[in-house]
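@channel sequence for tomorrow's demo:
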Amino acid sequence: MHPTTITKKPKIAPVTNPRLTLGLLFLLFYPLGTYQIWRRRSRLWVKLIYTVLGFPLFLVLFTFGAIVFLATFLPPLDLTVGNRPDRTIYNKVGNYETTFLKTGRETNNAYELLHVEVEPQGGNGWHYHKTFAEQFTVQQGELTVGLNGKKNTLTPGQTATAYPTDYHYFFNNTNAKIIMLVKATPARGLEKSLRVYYGLANTGQWEKDKFFPNNPWHLALILGYSESYMADLPGFIQEPLVKSLAKIAQWKGEDRDLKVFYE
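structure tokens (generated this afternoon):
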């Protein structure tokens, strides 16, 4: 009996984004538009509406642009992990146990292979990655895997693959432990992000049921390492923002306290 594979072809991202283009145009022309409208003999209420309503949007876009612009001059995010003797790490909060069977260091970044144990009610939410695919192969138990809006139940021997930009999640909705293999191709910063995330959770620096760790810059670094993006935010906003904030956090030295988890 051949194992079942749930997969789909990789998607090609669009070259341009009209929303981002409109935002950039507004950012460029709002100051000029404000100047021009106050020079004209327009009614006062028209001038006030244009100025007052447009300013918050202009401020948000300006801040966004400044963050992204600053990050372009900063060094790339460091995704490397030291030659760690601990192959198995634990997440007491998320009910995970992960063993690194093959690391990026060992495969010349061709792939990472993880042995993951998920306790009942353990898992994650909808998200996607941009630069690597994740393959989930169940060895024990029944795993729920969401893939592009569809929920699948995998049993031992079955596989599901989330390609770059595919929305996905996994969850143990049973009362028994699940064991699975996770293969990330190519190897990027998954190991580093897991080591940091587990470390913060286990040391009380990221409390259960809280969206942010004690240091919000650490969230930017974790998302940057794993290149993970949430399903509820437009990609044209969060992708450059996450990358930029992670690089700024590294530049500020916010990763110094995290080195104990991965060096």
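heads up for whoever presents: The two ends are 43 Å apart (CA to CA).
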